[in-house]
Amino acid sequence: MATEAEASTQVHGGRLIAARLRAHGVTKLFTLSGGHLFSIYDGCRAEGIEIVDVRHEQAAAFAAEGWAKVTRTVGACALTAGPGVTNGMSAIASASHNRSPMLVLGGRAPQFRWGQGSLQEIDHVPFVRPLVKLAATAQETAEIPALVDEAMRTAITPHSGPVFLDFPLDYVFGEAGDPEPAAPLAEPWRGPAADGREVERVAASLRDAERPVIMAGAGLYWGRGEESLRALAEELRIPVFLNGLARGCLPADHELAFSRARGIGLQGADLALVIGAPLDFRLGFGAAFAQDAEIVTIDVAEPDQEAPRQLAAELYGALPATLDALRAAAGPAEPGSAREAWIVSLRATEDENRAGEASELADERAPLHPVRVYGELIRLLDRDAIVVGDGGDFVSYAGRLIDSYEPGCWLDPGPLGCLGCGFGYALAAKLARPDRQVVLLLGDGAFGFSGMELDTLARHGVAVVAVVGNNGIWALEKHPMEALYGYSVAADLRPATRYDQVAEALGCHGELVSTPAELRPALERAFECGGPALVNVLTDPTVAYPRRSNLA
Question: At a CB cut-off of 8 Å and minimum separation 6, what does 15 contact?
Fold first, then answer.
């Protein structure tokens, strides 16, 4: 029997979870109310963790991933048993593809009734496990703190990613002693560099290269390598291309930052440093580079899959240390070297392609050309604005036209391409960075996945500005299908739907834009309204996004 002193230190399982979350720096828990989670909510209230409730569990999970993307810390959500967890599966899969450190807490039917048909009884672990780095069920109340510690450590260990824990109702409502304080989480980006001999070998190749490039992806961002990348590029005079979360890790207006010259730059390179970017479909499975180019992959840890083409070298280690070691070993570029001519050539291509966008940026058609929308929007964006993309055709234009100047300012679905992420991402981004502009760019198709989260923004007073490109079709499917077959099916939406009126009905500011002259004033009012806003822009359904390899 417990002594009186021991009994006084007993707390319920939900409080144990919340105390551990707080100890590891979690300040927000995204969720949708469920009875299996009441104890966790009670614990969060006691521990000072804000509970942010949404309208669909997928939005809670996407918000947790969005928090991770913006802050580079673990985002947390709680999903009730059964359909709560299954509703979050797409977001968990997205986080897995994006390597986003994220903790998913699941409710679970009581263990003492397991197998007897309790409400929402299902074993989540077997179907969640393929998507996460750790999937486990608490076996008793007393083990909860250690399990949360293990999950948090696992989420941030390279390669980072989502983890899942579920808690039987009887265990999370049960009590146990409050354990010793949690040990601080490691900071993996401060680890050692890649093998020194391999670094020297790459440095030798880099010294001989006349047309080197850096192609960096999300792994650069997660590895906190942006400062070392900038130093490497500047000292060795290497052009830089960025995709995904790496956008902004070198400011878009830096002399060595390129985007519109990507196709020519990658194909023309004799040596490519591919940093934190898999050779997947975004890089043509390696074909984005010339066949005779030397490719060096640099990342925090070995990849899960083999590269689709032969690599000249592989460097695996903490990115700041590895990139600094490579810079020191290669030494500065010689003045007047061939690299300067290479940079000048790429800049000419970059400038030419940017100039070629001028006519579309000023296009006067109605419904609007999608590029015209961004022509107005970019004039209103602050340098540190966070832009969230959720859609296909409309967001493809955004990816081409919107520049980023700081890390963590561009959030898109990533390689899984899961629509519906936008409202969750934007909610988390604005809560994490309340002093910044947060703009959500939505296709009208993507709006259908999570448009009710406008209610979430209104209830919590989160001032996100959403811009809908409303062309009444699934453009990335309709145009290619018609080109292939001469017809399209399952590719049409209701034209000119009043998503602005939906926003107003849910407590947000809403406006309809049908002509170019209406756009700038509507955007200005949306930014100035002080709350969540949606600008519904009717865009031309005949416009098809150009699939040009040098624009990405």
Answer: 39, 42, 43, 46, 47
